[in-house]
Structures are given as structure tokens and as C-alpha cells.
Backbone:
């Protein structure tokens, strides 16, 4: 089955409009919109997964309530304020849904509402009273860019992607947008990612696919080890591709899952590559692990190591830190026969064999590590399982951004 | 029982000599010694705990072999080279013990041998052939400073401490030295810490005390989340204080444990406060937890958060990141009623009550956070257990040190 990357984002699938605007949550005059909407032409099936953090954004309980019936028609998202640890967060989130419902002529219970930004600041209502009518009035089939930019916080790039696949002989599309740059160590859900598809699929199968997918894409991303209070990955499937509704396992479901995996990995890499202050995307691929979960844990341990992340920032092929990070992975495997190589668009170099040093051409290593995407390839030689994880380097800029974030 | 801090380090207890010298592992002319020895006048009981990292320094298997009988007379340590992931690391470690045994007239099996430095570089023998005779020739009862400086890597300060307590009516001393500044997220053992005591105690009780102690002192320190391959905490007890040997539980053993705790917390704080590139020591105290282990996990989660560490570097009272770090702690507790306050020598300020924001005097917060020691006080209101953890801020300098470490 072929999956094709196409241009576009949250409006790439049939029947989805979007927009972004400035409601007034942030400081005016900064040219940065602070809220976005995605509207489907009809009610669709829907699913979401959320952060595992015990301290949760107010929007999460509202989303769970709204998605209890497996249906949704719209997504509403604001940046600047996380609506977390606020006294009346749930009330404000519900109020905002009622505003959008009234303006768009849809049911408040069919809205997926989310927030991202600073934790612990009371959430004002006025910006939404001003912004939501604007969002609805301007929402259009080519408003995806505007929406994707409005949900950014410390992101330097908006994150959009779309893939096309086929189900039941019909061409289907999954598109989406995401934000996320700091407080990212995804567990169970993700920062904020909004997917839309015109594929017809039951809410049960949609949720099943989404829950299975996060394990090997979003959950394998870490920027700073901090699992956010707001992580939410959501999807609406409006069925407008006209395929026979996917209601069980089978070829169509496999195709849908493959397309969902493709777009999820694209977003996982986009998020890692735009980590706060980062200059490089780091991909770790671990093979030869005794089982899949061990491979996941080891690859994630590597891309989480502050020391290795700082070394990569300095283009220093300090592979000892890779071995160190492998060694403290909380899993059961043999660490005595590990091979490590480093690669990028400029070639590949073996740095460690049988858990011991190899003579290294430092000039070649430097040339490889100067690239914007660096791969760490690890073979544990203790089984057949493999996994990927994505992270970024640790830089002066990360410290700067996070030493000054609230001010 | 009174425990008194006194001056001195590894030579503070009776009958311990020490020295440091330049053997040639590092570059000459940098004024930095690279190896140290501690020699007891007689064979003592001894114990050690080691890193939980699966990738282990060569010295660890040698130490375990040498300490199988619970006895030791000397400690040998080098900096610059970790002797980890090297082809003949165990052979070199044993060779070095044989050199020291010959020079000092002691048994090779009574030597605790350790290394710290870069991983994956073959360990040369010549520097030890040159350095060890110097160490033995010059070892003296006031050589503790020299030894403590020789074992430093990126440490900016040497770390020494000593406490006096009483056992069986005799005054006993525990002294020690430690090194550790990066790759520090201690688990089961510690970076390198060498303790010496003149207290008479059986090797069984010594090991029991040491294993119990690390849980609430060294294991609660994290600088960068990276558990080293070389962490080793060792102690020799030569019995020269003349107390009746401690062979069982009882008042003397409690006194010994209390003194061991006192000196361990001193070293834990010294290590955290000298984290690579750091400007501040962060102490987290969590109370009201349902059990001790949960309190440990929550306090450690706070001091491990990259985001909170960067905020403290920027003197930003971003307590939302404390709530976030508490929330992703892998433990079972109620996160709905958490109080947080920040304090230092300049006073205290409540920032969060009942897991929601409080109005905050930003000027006062800034004044408090500008100090070199910052305390985060957290009450979970879900039980009676409490615990401490120690870490440091995340700075430009950390990134600089670790982007350039190997070069």
C-alpha cells in the first residue's frame, strides 16, 4: 500500500475549515495570533489521548466529557495561557465551547477544546468573546496555515503535514497541525496535535488506532524530559472521502494505521527538530534488542541524555555518553556487546564495537556531526527488536528561553 | 547524641594518610594532579556501593573482588580517564593495584581502586608506574587536600568533610572526600566518594549502614539525570578510635549511622552545589506524602526538571514547572491539593495553594531566588512522609562544558 506525502495541514482532508486570530491573551502588537479553530462540515467520529501527568490542564476533563460519545465537529485551541492550576479553568473552557457552539451553529459537546502556554495564570474570558466570532466568520478551506501559526508558543516553525492513502478503493487524506517545543517528554498523549481525516471510520476503531500509534511515534519524542500537563493528540474523521466505514480489523484498517503512523512520525520529527533552542534533530535507532519495549526504552534513554545532547550541540563524537545512557536504561538486556555508529547526510562512522572503543577519524566525525540531522545507530546484539526515538541537542538558547520564559 | 562538624577530610580520622600527584594521564603543565591515594595504618573493615548503570567501569569488578572479605587498607583513584569501555580495563586496574601493593607493602586485595574521566579511551600504564611510587613516598597525615584536588574533573571545588561522634564512650571520626560535577544522577552508589573512619565496626554492620544511607542522601542528588558508569562510594574503618567494635544493632550503631548520614548529606549538598556550570544549589523538601518512597520520588522529580532548573537560573519563580514535575512523578498520590513555597536566606514566599495560583510579589520572589541556595518546600497534603533532594540550576556554562568536554 502506498502512502503519499502531500502539501497542506489540518485542511488537507475534505470538508475541514480552519482559522487563527488574535483574541487578546497575549500582548497586542506582537503579530502573534493566540487562538485557532478547526471546523468540519459535518459531525465526525473522534478520539483523543492525553498527558499522563497527574497535574492536568482544565481542558482535559472537558474533552473527555465531550468525546464520551466518540463524536466531534470542531477543535478550539489557544496559546499563551495553559489553563492549568487555575481556579475556574473548567468553567472557562466550557464557556468558550458555548461561545463557539453559538457562533458556528454546532453542539458544544462536539468541540475538542485545548490550551497551551503558561501554567497557573487565571484564564480571562474576554479574549475568547472577541476572538471566537472572528474565527468562525473567517474559517476557510485554506485557513490551515493561519491556524497552525496561532497555536505556536516557543515553536520557531509551524508544524503541518498531510498524507494520502486509500481505503475501500477511495482516496483518503489525513492532515494535521501540531505545536510543541518545550516541556516535551511525551507520555501517552502528546503536546498539542490536531489531526483531521475524511476517511470514514468508527469511533471505536479510530480510538484503537490512535492509542496504538502514539507508542512508537509521539511517545518516543523527548526535548527536555518534562511531560507537560497539557499534552493532547486529537483526531476528527468526517467520512467525506466516501469509503465504506471502517468498523473492524482488516486491510482498510491496516492502511489507515499505516497512514496514521506516517503522519505521526512526520510530526514527531518536526517537534523534536524544533525543540526549544535546538540546532539539530537527533534520531536514535536501536536494533538487536531482546524485545520492542526494551528497544523503545534504550532509544529514548539516548535522546534524553543531557550530556549526549550537549555533546551533539558541540559536534563532539562523545559516544561514551551513548553507552552511559544505554547502560542506565531501566530494562533487562546484555550490555557487553554493543555497536554504535553515527551518521548524517555527510556519511557514517563506526565509533564503538563490542562495547569498546574503535580508532576514530575525528575530522570525519566532526563533518558528520555538523549536519542538522544526526543519527545514532545502535546494535545491542541481544535479540531482534528495534525502535526509533527523536530528540534534539541541548543549547545555550534552551537555557535562555527557559530562564526567561515567564517574563 | 551530638554530631559535630570538624575541619579536614579523608585524613581527619586517626591513622589515615593521603596524597595526590601528577602521573601523566592528563596533559602536563596544567597544574592538575591526576591520581590520589589514601592509606590506612592498618587493615580495616570496608564496604562500597556502586553505580546501577549496566555499562560499568572496569574498577567495579576489581573492587567487588577485593572487598569480598570485607577488608581494605588503601584507596587508589585516578581522574582524566574513566577506564570504562576499554579493552583491557580490568587488567590495568589490577596492575595498578599490584604496583601500589609493592610500593606500600600491603596486599593488592586490600586496595579499593577507582577511576573517573572520559569513557572509552584505552588506559595507559606508564602514568601509574611513574605516579604510584610518588604517592606512597609522600603520603602523609595532612595530605587530604592534595588527594581531594587530584580526583577532581570538572569540579570547581574540592569536596571534603569530617564529623565527630561517639561510640562506646570513645570519640570517633568519619572523614571523606568526593568528586562529581557532571553525569550525576546517583542511583545505588554515587560518583566517587571516599570515606574513612577510625570507628571499630564489623564489615557486615559497615555495609548495612552504607547501603541504608545512600537512599536518602547520595541517591537523592541529580545534576543532569545521567547515572554515571563509574559511581562508587567506599569506606574504610580502621578501628583506631579504640571503641568496642560495633557488631550489632544498638545505640552505637545508631550513632554511627547518624554520623554517616550527617557527612553523606554534606557531600550530597556539596556535589549538587558544584554541579557542572551551576550557579545555585536547589534543595527540594516534600512533606505530606503518603509514604517515604513517594516523597523521595517527588522531591527528585522536582530537582531533575530541566525547565525548573533553567527557570531558577533565570531567577524566575515559575512554580507551574514545579507542579508539572510533581505531576509526572511515577508514583501514586493525590495531586489536587498541593502547596508550594520558595525560600532562601532572603525569606520565604508562598506561590501555590491547593494546586492553584496565589497572588505573588514578583520583586520579593526575585530577591529570594537571587541567593546561592534556593529551597522549594512542597506539601502534598496526602500523608505524613517527607524527603529531601538536591540539585542545581541549568546554565549556559553546563552546555558549554559538555559541548566541549572531550576536546
Residues:
Amino acid at each position: 500500500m502506498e502512502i503519499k506525502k502531500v502539501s497542506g495541514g489540518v485542511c488537507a482532508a475534505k470538508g475541514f475549515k480552519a482559522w487563527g486570530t488574535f483574541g487578546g491573551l497575549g500582548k497586542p502588537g506582537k503579530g502573534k495570533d493566540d487562538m485557532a479553530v478547526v471546523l468540519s462540515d459535518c459531525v465526525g467520529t473522534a478520539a483523543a489521548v492525553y498527558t499522563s501527568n497527574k497535574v492536568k490542564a482544565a481542558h482535559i476533563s472537558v474533552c473527555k466529557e465531550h468525546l464520551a460519545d466518540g463524536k466531534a465537529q470542531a477543535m478550539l485551541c489557544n496559546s499563551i495561557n495553559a489553563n492549568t492550576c487555575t481556579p475556574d479553568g473548567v468553567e472557562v473552557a466550557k464557556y468558550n465551547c458555548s461561545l463557539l457552539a453559538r457562533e458556528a451553529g454546532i453542539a458544544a459537546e462536539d468541540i475538542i477544546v485545548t490550551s497551551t502556554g503558561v501554567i497557573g495564570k487565571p484564564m480571562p474570558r474576554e479574549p475568547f468573546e472577541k476572538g471566537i466570532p472572528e474565527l468562525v466568520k473567517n474559517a476557510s478551506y485554506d485557513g490551515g496555515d493561519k491556524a497552525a501559526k496561532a497555536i505556536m508558543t516557543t515553536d520557531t516553525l509551524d508544524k503541518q503535514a498531510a498524507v494520502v492513502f486509500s481505503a475501500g478503493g477511495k482516496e483518503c487524506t489525513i492532515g494535521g497541525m501540531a505545536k510543541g517545543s518545550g516541556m516535551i517528554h511525551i507520555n501517552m498523549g502528546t503536546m498539542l496535535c490536531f489531526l483531521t481525516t475524511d476517511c470514514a471510520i468508527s469511533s471505536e476503531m479510530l480510538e484503537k488506532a490512535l492509542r496504538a500509534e502514539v507508542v512508537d511515534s509521539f511517545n518516543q519524542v523527548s526535548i527536555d524530559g518534562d511531560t507537560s500537563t497539557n499534552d493532547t493528540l486529537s483526531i476528527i474523521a468526517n467520512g467525506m472521502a466516501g469509503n465504506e466505514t471502517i468498523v473492524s480489523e482488516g486491510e482498510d484498517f491496516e492502511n489507515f494505521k499505516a497512514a496514521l503512523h506516517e503522519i505521526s512520525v512526520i510530526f514527531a520529527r518536526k517537534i523534536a527538530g524544533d525543540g526549544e533552542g535546538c540546532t539539530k534533530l537527533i534520531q536514535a535507532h536501536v536494533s538487536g534488542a531482546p524485545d520492542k519495549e526494551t528497544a523503545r526504552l534504550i532509544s529514548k534513554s539516548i535522546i534524553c541524555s543531557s550530556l549526549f545532547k550537549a555533546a551533539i550541540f558541540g559536534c563532539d563524537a562523545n559516544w561514551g555518553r551513548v553507552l552511559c545512557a544505554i547502560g542506565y536504561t531501566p530494562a533487562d538486556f546484555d550490555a557487553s556487546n554493543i555497536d554504535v555508529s553515527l551518521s548524517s547526510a555527510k556519511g557514517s562512522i563506526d565509533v564503538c564495537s563490542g562495547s569498546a572503543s574503535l580508532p576514530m577519524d575525528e575530522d570525519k566525525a566532526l563533518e558528520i556531526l555538523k549536519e542538522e540531522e544526526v543519527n545514532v545507530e545502535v546494535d545491542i546484539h541481544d535479540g531482534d527488536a528495534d525502535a526509533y526515538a527523536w530528540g534534539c541537542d541541548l543549547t545555550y538558547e534552551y537555557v535562555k528561553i527557559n530562564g526567561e520564559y515567564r517574563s
Remarks:
- Chain B touches chain A through 65 residues (CB under 8 Å).
